[in-house]
Design brief:
Order of helices and strands: EHEHEHEHHEHEHEEEEEEHHHH
Strand content: 15-25%
CATH superfamily: Aldolase class I
CATH class: Alpha Beta
Structural class: alpha/beta
Helix content: 25-40%
Number of domains: 1
CATH topology: TIM Barrel
Bound molecules: S-adenosylmethionine, iron/sulfur cluster
Mean pLDDT: 91
Strand order of the largest sheet: 7-8-9-6-5-4-3-2-1-10-11-12
Largest sheet: 12 strands, mixed
Shape: globular
Low-confidence stretches: none
Number of helices: 11
Radius of gyration: 19 Å
Length: 333
């Protein structure tokens, strides 16, 4: 393992999350600000050639896992051409994609041979609520996208659910039931504050409350932590008859139990800014280096500079709210 991408606190960075667009075909309330967002112009975004070059340099320096995200990655025209190019980089072990699944049924045939893992985001099974939360009537397309992944045999599918008190916390058991017969890891994510996303302490349902709700119907059996350093994972056994779920549930307690000490992530925004921490406004301009004839070493140096200033941990929620940083859709989760 290369020791190049190590920060001041000894954390080795092996995971790069790349946003390929800031645009999206949904309008999730918790992700986008209320007022109209100004999209980046096409020429502001990194080209596929630039993304491929940067990713190769990062993989040579020790990145082993890349996740494509956005905005909605499948909303970027031609993404099916980029995916095989990233997957073919020597040294890369895992190529993952996070998607809202709206376009998945249509795009999956072209990309499935190259994508090792998918995370699908879905916060409700109710059509009206889906429309309220996302601004679009697309629940049926999302469910078809999930079905398409299961038909293709993905055994490691993750379903990301942002839990918001008073909004979708009445559906936690429905999500657990969804994992009963399917090889799906449902992951409940604590609602995080970003500029303009209507976060409040009152909407945060902490991990302990999520567990209490699930325990009404299930016995939760902890799965050892190695599976993922960021989520606490559990197998589910139905209390009424002992039925063992095929899938599992996980809780990502970014707010009530942050996992900063084991963070191995770096992020690159769609316009080529390297962000060492999701919750810090720090960003480092890689596009400028790329477009002014920078060498591979110059590009690697931008990563090293970002790592050199990566904070030890993220600030408390109130401080995060006060920071005039990017909104989630511009970072990529
Ligand atoms: N469009 C894709 C999707 O929705 O999966 C990828 C981008 S989205 C920004 C990545 C992830 O961030 C999604 O799982 C989404 O639920 C999560 N996310 C967005 N805003 C969030 C917030 N305020 N708190 C917690 N998770 C959030
Ligand atoms: Fe789009 Fe994903 Fe943000 Fe929803 S969470 S608005 S689907 S980028």
């Amino acid at each position: 393992m290369s020791t190049t991408l190590v920060d001041r606190f000894g954390r080795q960075h092996t995971y790069l999350r790349i946003s390929v667009t800031d645009r999206c075909n949904l309008r999730c309330l918790y992700c986008m600000p209320g007022e109209d967002i100004v999209w980046k112009r096409r020429e502001e975004l990194l080209t596929f050639e630039e993304i491929e070059r940067v990713t190769k340099i990062a993989v040579d320096a020790g990145i082993r896992k890349v996740r494509l995200t956005g905005g909605e990655p499948f909303a970027r025209a031609g993404i099916e051409k980029l995916i095989p190019r990233i997957k073919s980089l020597l040294g890369l072990e895992t190529l993952a994609v996070t998607t809202n699944a709206v376009l998945l049924k249509e795009k999956l045939p072209a990309v499935h041979p190259f994508v090792d893992a998918f995370n699908v985001s879905l916060d409700t099974f109710k059509r009206d609520k889906f429309r309220e939360l996302t601004g679009r009537d697309k629940l049926a397309e999302v469910m078809e996208g999930i079905e398409a992944l299961l038909i293709r045999g993905y055994q490691n599918l993750k379903l990301n659910v942002v839990v918001m008190k008073g909004i979708n916390d009445d559906e936690l058991l429905d999500f657990a039931r969804f994992a009963e017969e399917r090889p799906i890891a449902v992951r409940f994510i604590e609602f995080m504050p970003f500029a303009g996303n209507q976060w409040s302490q009152g909407k945060l349902l902490p991990m302990a409350d999520i567990v209490r709700e699930l325990e009404k119907e299930y016995q939760l059996q902890a799965i050892p932590e190695e599976r993922s350093p960021i989520s606490r994972d559990f197998r589910l056994a139905r209390k009424r008859d002992g039925f063992q779920s095929r899938g599992s549930i996980g809780i990502i307690a970014s707010m009530s139990a942050p996992f900063c000490s084991s963070c191995s992530r770096l992020r690159m925004t769609a316009e080529g800014k390297i962000m060492p921490c999701l919750h810090s406004p720090l960003e480092f301009d890689l596009r400028k280096v790329l477009r002014s004839g920078g060498s591979d070493v110059d590009i690697l140096n931008v990563f090293l500079q970002a790592l050199g200033e990566k904070p030890e941990e993220h600030p408390p929620a109130e401080e995060m709210m006060a920071q005039a940083g990017r909104v989630m859709i511009q970072i990529g989760g």
